[in-house]
Amino acid sequence: MSIDCLVLGAGQEVGKSCVVVTIGGKRVMFDCGMHMGHHDSQRYPDFARILAAAPGATDFTSAISCVVITHFHLDHIGALPYFTEVCGYHGPIYMTYPTKALAPLMLEDYRKVMVDHRGEEEQYSYEDIDRCMKKVIPLDLKQTIQVDKDLVIRAYYAGHVLGAAMIYAKVGDAAMVYTGDYNMTPDRHLGAAQIDHLKLDLLITESTYAKTVRDSKHAREREFLKAVHKCVSGGGKVLIPAFALGRAQELCILLDDYWERMNLKIPIYFSAGLTIQANMYYKMLIGWTSQKIKDSYTVHNPFEFKHVCDFQRSFINDPEPCVLFATPGMISGGFSLEVFKRWAPSEKNLVTLPGYCVAGTIGHKLMSGKATRIDLDKETRIDVRCQIHQLSFSPHTDSKGIMDLTEFLSPSHVILVHGEKPQMAFLKDRIESELGMPCFYPANNETVSIPTAQNLKISATEKFITNCSTAQARDSPRKSNLICGNHLSGANGDEKLAEGILLMEKCKAPKILCEDELLQFLGTEGHSVQFEPLLRSRIGEAETGIVDDLASE
C-alpha cells in the first residue's frame, strides 16, 4: 500500500498551496490556495488533474473525501470559493473556528481589491464566498474527526497566525501530517507550534526558509524600531505593507508599546477598516493566542491599541511624518500599491517589508536588490528613491525549526512544499544525511508515491505476560517492572528480551504464548534432551591417573 501525493500548488514555489493526498483509498485535499503573483490561469491550482487521478469519479465531490484548510492566508484558502461554487465541489470542508471566522474577511477584501480597484474579471462573488463558508465544518485543536468509517483527521496548534493548524490524517495503519505554515518559536501574540509524538509514514512540511537561521527575535525587533524611529524623526513617512491579519497585529503590538514608552506623538495609521473587524475577532479568540496574552488580557487587552488609528485617503499627500500599515502585503495591488506610488520617489521615506514576498509582486522586486525604477505596465513607471528595509518578522519557521520538527516526529518519509527550489534541494540533503529519512520536493502537478508499513497486531496471553514479569522480578527483586505497549521495560527504563512462541492460525489473530501453552494447544507432551558432561569426567579420570603415576615414581 502507498500514499500518493499530487502537488497542485506550492511545488518548488511559494504560493497557491494545494496538495491532494490519496491515503488508504481516501483522497484528501490539503489547502486550496491562490498565487498572489499571477493574474492568469496559473493563479489557481489545476483542479482538472484531480479527476484524471481519480478513475471512475464523475465530479470533484465523488473524487475527494474532504478538504482541509490550515489557515486563512490567501495562498492557502484563496481558491476555495472558486473550487466549491464554480467547480462544484460539495463535500465536507474542515478548518478551525478562528479560520472560519476570519477567512471571509480576507476573501472579500481581496475580491474587492482585484475587481473594484484593478478592474479584473470576477472569479467569484461575495455571495459565492458566503455560500462556500456555510459548507465549512469547524474543528477544535486535538479534536478527532471521523470523516467516514475509515478516515480520521486531527488538528494541532501551528502558531503562524490565529487559528493555524497542522493536520494529522490516518486511514487504517497509514498515517501522515501536513503542516501547512507553522512557527516553532513564540512571538508576542502567538505561541509556538505544538504536536504529539506520532507514528508517521509521511510528513509534508513547508520549507519557506529552508536555508535561513534567524537572529534573535529581540535583535530583529530593535532593528525594526530603530529604522522606523529614525525615519519619522527625520520627517519621513514609513510604509509597512502587511495583510490585515497576522503580522499586522504583531507589529501593531510592538509599535504601540514602543510609542508608549518613548512618549511619541507621531501618528500610526492602519489603512483598512477590515482591521477593526479583525481586532474584534482577535479579542474574542484570546484562547488561541500566546500564554502571555491569555494571562494578562483581563487587565489589559493588547489588541486595544492606544496609538493606532484609521487612515483616510486624504492623508496620503500630507507633509507630516507618520507610520502606515497598508494592505495587501507584498505590495501586490490595492491601497499599499497606491501609497507606494506616492511615497517611493522621496528619499526621506521608508518602505519596510516585514515578511516573505512571492515572485511576481513588487515586494519581491524590492527585496531582490536596489530597485531604482519599477515598471508596473507599459504606461506606469515608479521611481524608487525611498529607503528599503527588509526584516524577517515572518511567522514561518526557519530551517532549524523545520529540522527540529522533522526529527521530533521521525516520519518514514518527508515531502517539502512551499519553498524555493534551490533552498529545498539544500534542505532535502540535510534531512537525508543528518536524519536518514528519504526526502522529496516535487514540482507542481507531480505525484510522489510513498510506501507505507503494514502493522500486524499480535496479542499476548495472560500467562506469557505474567511469566515475563516474574522473570524480571527475579532479576531485579527490589525494582518494580512495567509492561509498556510492545516492549517490556524495567524500572530503570532498560528494555528486556522476552521469549515466547508466535502462534498464527488461519482466519485468527496471531498471539504470543508460553511453551507449555503451545503443548496444550497441540495436545502433546513435552520432551526434554539432557546432555551428560562425559568429556569432563574422562578428563578428570585421566588427570587422576597421571597423578597416581607420578606418586608411584
TrEMBL record:
Domain Metallo-beta-lactamase: 15-243
Coiled coil: none
Compartments where found: Nucleus
GO molecular function: hydrolase activity; RNA endonuclease activity
Record GO biological process: polar nucleus fusion; snRNA processing
Keywords on record: Hydrolase, Nucleus
InterPro entries to which the protein is assigned, alphabetical: Beta_Casp, INTS11-like_MBL-fold, MBL, Metallo-B-lactamas, RibonucZ/Hydroxyglut_hydro, RMMBL
Domain Beta-Casp: residue ranges: 248-366
Source species, domain of life: Eukaryota
GO cellular component: nucleus
Family of this protein: Belongs to the metallo-beta-lactamase superfamily. RNA-metabolizing metallo-beta-lactamase-like family. INTS11 subfamily.
Protein's name in the database: Cleavage and polyadenylation specificity factor subunit 3-II
